[in-house]
Every structure is written in structure tokens, then in C-alpha cells.
Specification:
single chain, about 550 residues, Formiminotransferase-cyclodeaminase, Chain B, domain 1, Alpha-Beta Plaits, 3 domains
Length: about 550
């Protein structure tokens, strides 16, 4: 599925009858899923986040802009955040299966439609910018709403779409395409925004203006790239904040921004007390932060993802001013479907498997076996991690445990995905008419695809078990051996499921490729597992394996 995220910022954060109605205008479009509505009283601004496929998101964005035009009057707007329009900025962000170029095209189509149908001035920024000086939102917004009437009279400020006219009730809108941006505020133990500004100027890329050796004003860059920031005071929180936009998480991740603010604050005799996330954050960023702080504590970062994210929340102080719930703030957690089988207790899963129902079946059980094998690999790597005798191989053990956790989660997800793919095949068989043959073929290949992915993960799981066995404690040898045996069983079970799903499609070229891949994965897993099992058995005094 191609997923695009749209994050309009509207200039209303105090009246829920306005910002909720504006958000609902997007949510009412078929195919749009509203993820978050995050109002701010002091900023008088609401960050709205919704996702869907491109065309649905484009329509949702237009309906939201139209509704904001009807309900928000910029002549009455005041707030702590910079602004110049009722829908101030409306970026499109590629999330899954979508390129940046596709999001650029969506933003241009939105701008053209808003300009033509609503008669509003629209500017393009970031990756959609038509000229270098318009790439930065801050540059376009210079002077804010109050400067618009005069700026719109100048040729250099002519909009990309719509009239070069001042619309007092609306202002102007900026749209474009960008990477995932995190709006992130770091809390200080002071109430004077001047202190927050000093920290912001220390860390933001733009830095601050200082006097040079010759007495002229020069720019002193800040510590961090791809960071925009300013200080402000939020009465409802009773503290000043360093308010930042992290515009490229590959350049400056969240934990780096937090640590830089903490370092700057300490040098100035003040303290960081926590932080606040405005809007949503990718799961990857939370995992990176959690692993960063676990490593600093000399603890293994290769623990379950739920533990890693808990570490990130606590280390960043994300619940200081309001509760941080990953299910409401982490994009992937919001979009993730419920996994009824993987959520069962062991007793419930075994009971459900034993009943006279088709699911869970062998495919789900094979996926579970693989997940347990990966979990054992992570455990064998984690056990020696804190011990001084293993300090020289700690980095290698961490790599094993982190990869083990990733494969464990992937295979756990496959438990339910196997059942869902089987259900789609059953539904395809109920199709009537000319489309049935194509529907059944696609669903059959889909039903084989999940166990194929399980089988192809298994050689890597066995290697993790072998590497952990070699580097880890001798007392954990049997755990590594059990992991290899479970991975071998998972590969065999998954390959069987690939074959039974494709048994009537031997002449189909796509099916033939999938069968070949399953056989290759099974052979690789079997060889590697047999070698490790034999080694462990011999180590335990068992001689040659029977």
C-alpha cells in the first residue's frame, strides 16, 4: 500500500469547535485516516495529521483548507507560534511505497486547486520549491501575517499559485513535500523565555548573530544541522521551552537534539527537565533514542522493542508535561493492525491451534517457531553483555541481540499475516465472473509469500544463534542449539506451506521462482542448523548426533 502523510498546521488551537471541524473535513474523505489532532493554547495552533493513499490524501487536504478558509479569521489571530495563514502550512510526506517526487506532485496539484477554486495565494516550499529562496518555510514566512499586505505588492513575493492579493481573513498558504519532520520541545526549569532562546541559539543550525573581530555582525552557527529552534514560555506548563523543528532525522535525531539542549542548559546553570513531542514520530526514532541511552548506561540495546521505547520515553522525559502514549504518538503503532493470534497467551494459542478451525495452522506455528529461535539468539547474546570478561566482544554481542529482536518481531507479525493471507485466498475463491481467475492467482501467491518470508529469515536466525554461541557463555550452548533446532523446524514448516499453497501452480513463472527460493532457504537453514546442533551436542558430551 502506498501511504502518504499530510500534516496541515492551522492557525487555531483554542476553540475545539473550529479545529475539530477542520480536521473532520479531511477525515470525512474516503480512504483518509485521521491520526492526530494536537492543539496548543499558547501557540493558538493545531497540528493535524492524516494518512492514506495519494489521491485520498490530496482530496482530504483540499477539503481541510476549504473548511479553514470558512471558519478561521486571521484578523483575530494571536499566538506564540509564527503564522501567516489560516492553513499555515500543508506538507506531504512519503511514508511507505511513495517517492518524494510523487509527494511534490501532490503538493503542486493541491496548490493549483486552492489557487484556482478558492482564490487564495499559495507558495511551494522544501522539495517542491520553485526557487532556492523559497525552500525554507521560515524565509517564506518572514514578517508573518502582518507583513503580507506589503510583501504581496512586490514581484519577488508573487505566489506560485493563486492571486498576488492580500486576503485578510485567510492570509496565505504554504504547501510542499518534505521528509518526516518532528516538532519537538525541550523543557527547562525556568520561566524566562530569554534563557530558552539562548539555548535554542546554541543548538539550532542558524545559530546567532555575534560581533566579529572587526566589530561587524557575523553569524555564529549552532551545534546541530537540520534543526530550527526558538525559545518561548508556555504558561499552561509553567516552564520555558526550546521549541525545535527537526527537519531531517537522518542528520539530527531526537536524542541528539535533547542531549545538545541538556549540555547547553548545564553550561548556563539551568536544567533540562523533560521534553514534549508535538504531533507524531516514526518508530525508528524512538528505537534509536532508546538504544542510544541504553548504550550510554552500558546496557544491551538488543532488548525487546517495548523496553527500548520505554527507555526512550523515560530518558527524554516525554511524559513530563503530558502523558506520552506510544499507541497515540508513534506512527507505526497507530497504523498497526491488531494481531489477535500473536497477542494470545501460550495456553490460548495452543488451545486455538488444536480446535477444528483452519487458523492458526502450520504457517502460523512455523512463524512462532522462528520467532522463538530469534528470541533465543538474542538471549544468548544478552546474557554475557554486562560481564567484564566479555567487554572486548560487547559490540558484536549487541549487533546480534539487536538483529535477533528485529527478526523476532518480524516473525511474530507473520503469525497473523499468515492467517490473513489465507483468509484473502478464501475470499478470492468466492469471487464470481471474469475476475475470479486473476483474483485467485494473486491471493494464492500472496498466501505463499508470507511463509516464504519466514523461510528466508531462518538462515539468518541460525547464524545469529551460531555467532552468539561462539562469543557467549559456555553455559548458554544448549540455548543456542535449541534456537538452531527451532529455526530448522520453522524453515521446514514454512517451506511446506509455500509448497502446499503453490502445488497447483507449477507452470506459473512467479510460483516457480517462489518455490526455488523456499527450497534454497530450507537447504541453507538445514545445513547451518545441523552443524550448530552437532557442535552443541558434542560439547554437551553426546558424541555424534543420532
Amino acid at each position: 500500500m502506498k501511504i502518504v502523510e499530510c500534516v496541515p498546521n492551522i492557525s487555531e488551537g483554542r476553540d475545539p469547535e473550529i479545529y475539530n471541524v477542520v480536521a473532520d473535513a479531511a477525515a470525512a474523505v474516503s480512504g483518509v485516516e485521521l491520526l492526530d489532532v494536537d492543539p496548543g493554547v499558547e501557540t493558538n495552533r493545531t497540528v493535524i495529521t492524516f494518512v492514506g493513499e495519494g489521491e485520498a490524501v490530496l482530496e482530504g487536504a483540499f477539503q481541510l483548507v476549504k473548511r479553514s478558509f470558512e471558519l478561521i479569521d486571521m484578523r483575530n489571530h494571536h499566538g506564540a507560534h509564527g503564522r501567516q495563514g489560516a492553513t499555515d502550512v500543508c506538507p506531504f510526506v512519503p511514508v511507505s511505497g511513495v517517492t518524494m517526487d510523487e509527494c511534490v506532485e501532490l503538493s503542486r496539484r493541491l496548490g493549483k486547486r486552492v489557487g484556482e477554486e478558492l482564490g487564495l495565494p499559495v507558495y511551494l516550499y522544501e522539495y517542491a520549491a520553485t526557487r532556492p529562496e523559497r525552500r525554507s518555510l521560515a524565509d517564506i514566512r518572514s514578517g508573518e501575517y502582518e507583513a503580507l499586505e506589503e510583501k504581496l505588492r512586490t514581484p519577488e513575493f508573487a505566489p506560485d499559485f493563486g492571486p498576488a492579493a492580500f486576503i485578510p481573513s485567510f492570509g496565505v498558504m504554504v504547501t510542499g513535500a518534505r521528509k518526516f519532520l518532528v516538532a519537538y520541545n525541550v523543557n527547562l526549569n525556568v520561566t524566562d523565555k530569554r534563557w530558552a532562546n539562548r539555548v535554542a541559539f546554541d543548538v539550532r543550525e542558524k545559530g546567532r548573530m555575534v560581533k566579529g573581530p572587526d566589530g561587524t555582525d557575523v553569524i555564529q552557527p549552532g551545534l546541530l544541522k537540520a534543526v530550527r529552534g526558538v525559545g518561548w514560555f508556555i504558561p499552561e506548563y509553567g516552564c520555558a521551552q526550546v521549541s525545535m523543528n527537526l527537519i531531517d532525522l537522518d542528520v539530527t535525531p531526537v536524542h541528539a537534539a535533547f542531549d545538545a539542549c541538556d549540555e547547553s542548559a548545564r553550561k548556563r546553570g539551568i536544567r533540562v527537565t523533560g521534553s514534549e513531542l508535538v504531533g507524531l514520530i516514526p518508530r525508528r526514532s524512538m528505537l534509536e533514542a532508546g538504544r542510544h541511552y541504553l548504550t550510554r548506561m552500558e546496557r544491551s540495546p538488543g532488548v525487546p522493542e517495548v523496553d527500548v521505547i520505554h527507555t526512550a520515553i523515560r530518558s527524554l522525559g516525554l511524559s513530563e508535561v503530558s502523558e506520552f502514549n506510544p499507541a497515540e504518538k508513534v506512527v507505526e503503532d497507530i497504523l498497526a493492525p491488531e494481531r489477535p493470534l500473536a497477542s494470545l497467551t501460550l495456553q490460548e494459542f495452543a488451545d486455538e491451534t488444536s480446535r477444528d478451525s483452519t487458523a492458526p495452522g502450520g504457517g502460523s506455528v512455523a512463524a512462532l517457531a522462528g520467532a522463538l529461535a530469534a528470541a533465543l539468539a538474542a538471549m544468548v547474546a544478552n546474557l554475557p553483555h554486562p560481564k567484564a570478561a566479555y567487554a572486548k566482544v560487547r559490540g558484536e554481542l549487541e549487533e546480534i541481540s539487536v538483529r535477533g529482536q528485529e527478526l523476532k518481531q518480524k516473525l511474530l507479525n507473520a503469525i497473523d499475516e499468515d492467517t490473513w493471507s489465507f483468509q484473502r485466498l478464501m475470499d478470492a475463491n468466492k469471487v464470481t465472473g471474469e475476475g475470479k481467475t486473476a483474483a485467485v492467482r494473486e491471493a494464492t501467491l500472496g498466501a505463499a509469500r508470507v511463509p516464504l518470508e519466514v523461510a528466508e529469515a531462518c538462515p539468518g536466525v541460525v547464524k545469529l544463534c551460531a555467532d552468539a554461541r561462539e562469543l557467549g557463555m559456555a553455559a548458554s550452548a544448549s540455548d543456542a542449539g535449541v534456537g538452531a533446532a527451532m529455526a530448522r523446524a520453522a524453515a521446514l514448516g514454512a517451506a511446506m506451506n509455500v509448497r502446499i499453497n503453490l502445488q497447483d501452480m507449477a507452470d506459473d513463472p512467479d510460483a516457480a521462482v517462489m518455490l526455488e527460493r523456499a527450497d534454497k532457504a530450507l537447504a541453507a537453514t538445514t545445513r547451518a542448523a545441523a552443524e550448530l546442533e552437532a557442535d552443541v551436542w558434542k560439547h554437551l558430551g553426546g558424541g555424534e548426533l543420532p
